[in-house]
Amino acid sequence: MFEFAALVMADFTAPKEIGTNPQSLLLLLPVVAAIAVVYKATKLPSISAGNFLKESVVLFCSIVVFMVITALALSGVAWLVTE
Amino acid sequence: MARWQSQENPLPFLFLVGLAGWFVPGGGYLLLKETGRALIIFVTIALTFCLGLYIGSIGTIDPIGARPWYFAQIMNSPLVAIIGHFTARGGYPAYARPNEMGQIYTSTAGLLNLLCIVNSVYLAYLRKTKSTRLGEGPM
């Protein structure tokens, strides 16, 4: 038991390997999910599983779609400037 | 004006709610008997914070080299200061992308907890002043 706990704690003492590749952008998703869930938890008048899940997913998708649109727009501007 | 005609001084209770929310994410809501809300907030903020520590290591909590991030991180809980005490000696260096990601995760968790603290105090204030319209928080 002690060895297991030490192993788990040791995992938190060394940084993980994260490259600067496009896949690393996926690390955005857990943060967006956390923001959507906590924001909806503070704003909904009453928490029921179905409604809470629906509202959180809608907010999550809205944020992601808006960020994708922003990224595409910025890529377009960058392409126009460099071409 | 009716809001100010409360029988007792609400400040100590509001302070207690804010303090509980700071010590344990969702603790303020627990005092207001909003168990479901408290549980969701606790699990989400704790997971985000732990994921940040897992990615960037405890070295991402740096009270000396990254002071502005530290102010956001300590909003998770005062217990973050204990981690900061160990990492301030420089024994757990974290650099580059993992450090950035860890700082973003842990600081976002802290700022989300700040939102919850403000919202729970506001909710407590509404209840204490007998205006129990739930969910009408500061935008």
Structural key phrases:
heterodimer, A: 83 residues, mainly alpha, 71% helix, B: 139 residues, 6 helices, elongated, disordered N terminus
Written overview of the protein:
The complex is a heterodimer of chains A (about 80) and B (about 140). In chain A, helix 2 (about 30-45) crosses helix 3. Chain A has helices at about 1-10, 30-45, 50-80. The mean pLDDT of chain A is about 90. Chain A has one domain. Chain A has about 80 residues and is mainly α. The termini of chain A are far apart. With about 140 residues, chain B is an all-alpha fold. Chain B has one domain. In chain B, about 65% of the residues lie in helices and about 0% in strands. Chain B is built from 6 helices and no strands. In chain B, helix 1 (about 10-25) runs antiparallel to helix 6, helix 3 (about 35-55) runs antiparallel to helix 6 (about 95-130) and helix 4 (about 65-75) packs across helix 6 (about 95-130). The longest helix of chain B is centred in the last third of the chain and has 33 residues, at about 95-130. Mean pLDDT of chain B is about 85; it is low at about 1-5. The interface between A and B is medium-sized, with 27 and 35 residues.
Strand content of chain A: under 5%
**Total of DSSP H or I helical runs spanning 4+ residues of chain B:** 6
Low-confidence stretches of chain B: 1-5
Spell out the helices and strands of chain A N to C: HHH
Q: How many domains would you count in the coordinates of chain A?
A: 1
Strand count of chain A: 0
Averaged pLDDT of chain A, please?
A: 88
The stretches of 5 or more residues of chain A where confidence is low (pLDDT under 50) are none
Radius of gyration of chain A: 19 Å
What is this entry, summarized?
By secondary structure, chain A is mainly alpha-helical. Chain A contains 3 helices and no strands. The mean pLDDT of chain A is 88.
Reconstruct the topology from this structure:
The complex is a heterodimer of chains A (83) and B (139).
Chain A: H1 2-10, H2 28-43, H3 49-82
Helix pairs in contact in A: 2-3
Chain B: H1 11-23, H2 27-31, H3 35-56, H4 67-73, H5 80-87, H6 96-128
Helix pairs in contact in B: 1-6, 3-6, 4-6
